Fold this protein.
Amino acid sequence: MTDKKRGIHELYREDPVAADEQLWGRKADPMTRRGFLTRGSLVAMSAAVGATIPFAHLMPSGLIPAALAQTDTPFAIPGKEGLVVLNDRPVNAETPAHLLDDRVTPAKHLFVRNNGIPPVTTDIDLDAWEITFGGESIAQEMTFTIGELKEKFKHYTYQLQLECGGNGRSEFVPPASGNQWSTGAVGCPEWTGVRLRDVLEHVGFKDDAVYLAYYGADIHASGDPDKVPISRGVPIEKALEDESLIAWAMNGDDIPPMNGYPLRLVIAGWPGSVAGKWLRKIVVRNQVHDGPKMTGTAYRVPCKPVAPGTTVPDEEMCIIESMPVKSLITFPKSGIEHAVGQPLALRGHAWAGDAEVSAVHVSIDFGATWMKADLEGPANRFAWQHWNASMRLPETGYFEVWARATDDMGRAQPMVLPGWNPKGYLNNACHRIAVQAV
Ligand SMILES: Nc1nc2c(c(=O)[nH]1)N[C@H]1C(S)=C(S)[C@@H](COP(=O)(O)O)O[C@H]1N2
Ligand SMILES: [Mo]
């Protein structure tokens, strides 16, 4: 397991039999396709699942042990519950819609999207953690401990939604490479920290400042200390907004290790990738930031719509800014049974990047007719908004509940997949759940 360079899921997706050999040295018998476990490979696999495997000789080749495939056990992420692990190296895990039912997302249910290897929490000395401000457009380089940030600047607390630009990727055809997120790379916890603006004004920056970007303490998945896994940012105007925070707390507690402990950026409404975790350095740039994952197809989409599968030249790709309008049905859980004619309570959240959600509608007839849901205003700008509705299912059978949000600029979620793009970003198609009327 230790010399494994890539994630189990990734390897098995590409070629399960080759993955077997590479991970455990397990060879397949060409006649029976049974996995032939050598002594060494049996030891490796037993160690990984945490027990001996009595029926190891019957285990088909190319089978990821269920204990590793998608669960709690060896890959349990400390402090997380019920998340679906999409990849183990780097760790990526999403939240099933019904577990996002809370108004404020609890730490245990906030998704994890890692591009590299996070710092080990027990190695972190909280008092010694420093954040440095630098870059061409900073007046003079300055460093703060977390204690100094807390002491020097006013604290703010906001509910801010965080959504990965790739949320919904799994539905794209032709498929887009990357984590196959369904709907769960989103959440809206409450964050506490200082305003980026207050710190930047204290440090001082030049008139030519156009962009602000971050560097974190995580290391590149290859283990190469000279490579940066991700360094992204936003135009300076976005960084200077009231709600752009350097945060040390989430829901009143330390930020969970996988979500950026002890310090992270929270810049809401834009792809989650601008919200740097394990924050070490902020740079103010006199040009659009060009760090890893700012260029090529990373977090960029064709400036103009293209046919699915098109190869798009670099200069025709644009950086993703505000995320599109979207909603989730968080209650009931998809797949329930419900009595015919009885009120069916529905609820969820809706959000719209930099905009506000102005309406949510629900449908039980595949979008032929829509009913307006009750919608609350946001707790603060960039917080997701809660909606609820009640419907009755007219007869027995299979129904789908669809939800569709519209933002204050009149833009609504599409019912089908929106514009294809090479990396499968920005899928804001309507969420739907299945309900059996009995
Ligand atoms: N240092 C660092 N910051 C990072 C990342 C990362 O891999 N390293 N991932 C980014 C991406 S792509 C997303 S979607 C969000 C995810 O935040 P979460 O894991 O707390 O949900 O963090 C962003 N910040
Ligand atoms: Mo992301």
Notes: The first helix runs from residue 8 to 14. The pocket of molybdenum atom (ligand 2) is lined by residues 113, 164-166, 271-273 (CB under 6 Å).
